[in-house]
Amino acid sequence: LDIALAIDVGGTKLAAATVDADGRIRGRSRVPVPRTEDPDELFESLVVCAFAALRGADVTPGELAAVGCGCGGPMRWPSGRVSPLNIPAWRDFPLRDRLVEEFATERVLVHNDAVALAAGEHWKGAGSASAHMLAVTVSTGVGGGLVLGGALYHGASGNAGHVGHIVVEPDGPACSCGGRGCLEAIASGPNTVRRALAEGWRPGPGAEPDGRAVAAAAAAGDEVAARNLTRSGAAVGVALASCVHALDLEVAVVAGGFSQSGPIFWEALRASYGAHARLAFAAGARVVPSERPADAGLLGAAAFVLLPDRYGWAVDA
Ligand SMILES: [Zn+2]
Question: What spacing in Å lies between the alpha carbon of 307 and ligand 1's midpoint?
Fold first, then answer.
């Protein structure tokens, strides 16, 4: 029986799961990213989280077939040296090497967390019936991953699927990448909130000004919140139409916390997708929410190592 340890290093939480070859999660663990500037202390927290997931499944490290990991970017691929934007303690941190050492196996693969999400949605989620799909995560940032011809597609440097930096408004707001009008600069949760605040929206008393508050206000009829949520959803639709045309995709899966902002976001997304995806093949593509919002990243990380022909890659020593 092949059992993989799956690891998901997000901006705010560390998660681990023990996953079998059928995609069943047998043990799991999750902790907040500790506030530390010590790279080793952070790695130690990740190891503790991983061992809890193994114990939950009654699996010893010696019984593990392999370790797959999704981590926030940027990173060097396939060497797995990571510098997650939201985790300043790790800059060019040799995450793959450290996992190889810790679990005493060379069968360790580390990739972008949005790529892991794409693998998970393709293996066991909303893209499972397709051979050509894009998964996009709309959250604190906007990222994505691609499955083309039935296999995970990496691009020249492992950066394929960076849909957050597709330009959707050439004269739009400045982006963290140095460009302007990127999808992420418009549609991420924090950028939507910033825009709404600038236009005078305020969260209710005692509430944090976050994406959830904007979505709630929009649903309750706040015009500024609704207008900004609409602009974000529409931007995602424009970007997806471009991607589907370029790559002849069957499915685009939209995941991430901010994508769960409700009907106003989704109606804007679908309307703008429909307005821009006019050729029959593109108009016929499915644009759908994630089927496994909580687990797709972990399942995909496991898929890297459990199904290497479809989702894996070679790491040159
Ligand atoms: Zn950008």
Answer: 32
